Amino acid sequence: MKVGLQIYSVRNRMAEDPVGTLQKVSDMGYKYIETYSHPEGRDEKTFGFGLPVKEAKARLDDLGLKVVGAHFYPEHPEGLDEYCAYYAELGADQVGCGGIYETEMAHKAANLNAAGKVAKKHGLRYYYHNHYHEYRKVNGEYIMHIYAKETDPELVAFELDTFWLARAGLNPVEEIKYYGNRLVLLHQKDFTKGLDEPISVFGEGRIDRCEPITPEIMDKYRRQDVYAEVGTGILPIQDYIDAGNEVGCPYILLEQDFTTMDEIDSIQTSMDAFRKFKGIEWD
């Protein structure tokens, strides 16, 4: 797998100086990036870069950066067609969306299939990114597995976040194998050593896996101190890399949701750790 960066990891820097931040990312050695757009729609016409498409393409080409994914919220909103056109022009292969809360899940698979059709029209693949709340159970089955069964493999792929899988009390290696060739991206961060916080948010008097999960419950267990830079925590990341390579996943992306460090120092720390793992590439 090749190593890349979800730009959300440097979102504060991007808000201040998108071009300068991308330059730092490139200079550091990251060549593959995934972008995100604000759920509130604050950058709906610039789609995560703060730049018009032609300027964004010129900058990316100059910096040697390739877009390998992009998040748009919600999964099938008005404006998705324009979004896909933007990323197709940038030369991306795929776009996707992140987790949707319980109140929005009733028609999720149908919405994902519809979004996949829009993406396909532009020559793009569409994918879905998990958090932990898709791993509660409905009628004895994980919601994420229901999505996998009810979506068209020709239209919908998946991006697994190993940190959130661990927070859901699952073995990320087994989930990587479950999605197999539908897995197109991995997200990686680490879980802080020595906390008085169990990794799993389910059980032990915490969240009932069979009860609906609201945004308020989700946020309750989103402690900022649980997020650690790659290689500084307790997750068996080499195992995830090995499993990803086994199923043919092409990219593993650093996504540092929160950090106590400067954002640039944070992504450098994770890069240094990634270089010590086996089975990864940079170019």
Q: Care to describe what's here?
A:
With 283 residues, the protein is an alpha/beta fold. It has one domain: Divalent-metal-dependent TIM barrel enzymes (TIM Barrel, Alpha-Beta Barrel), CATH 3.20.20.150. It contains eleven helices and twelve strands. The chain has helices at residues 11-16, 18-28, 53-63, 80-90, 108-121, 143-150, 162-167, 172-179, 215-220, 237-247, 263-274, and strands spanning 2-6, 32-36, 66-71, 94-97, 125-129, 137-138, 141-142, 156-161, 183-188, 190-191, 227-228, 251-254. The strands form three sheets. It has an eight-stranded parallel β-sheet with strand order 3-2-1-12-9-8-5-4. The chain has a two-stranded antiparallel ribbon with strand order 6-7. α8 (172-179) packs parallel to α10. The chain is globular. The relative contact order is 0.16. The model has no long low-confidence stretch (mean pLDDT 91).
Explain the layout of strands and helices.
Blueprint: E1 2-6, H1 11-16, H2 18-28, E2 32-36, H3 53-63, E3 66-71, H4 80-90, E4 94-97, H5 108-121, E5 125-129, E6 137-138, E7 141-142, H6 143-150, E8 156-161, H7 162-167, H8 172-179, E9 183-188, E10 190-191, H9 215-220, E11 227-228, H10 237-247, E12 251-254, H11 263-274
Parallel strand pairs: 1-2, 1-12, 2-3, 4-5, 5-8, 8-9, 9-12
Antiparallel strand pairs: 6-7, 10-11
Query: Quick one: biggest sheet?
Result: 8 strands, parallel
CATH class: Alpha Beta
Total strand segments:
12
Continuous helix count:
11
CATH architecture: Alpha-Beta Barrel
Q: Could you say how many structural domains there are in total?
A: 1
Structural class: alpha/beta
In whole angstroms, how far apart are the ends? 10 Å
The shape is globular
For this structure, the CATH topology is TIM Barrel
Proportion in β-strands: 15-25%
Gyration radius, in Å: 18 Å
Series of secondary-structure elements, N-terminal to C-terminal: EHHEHEHEHEEEHEHHEEHEHEH
Say what oligomer this is.
single chain
Low-confidence stretches: none
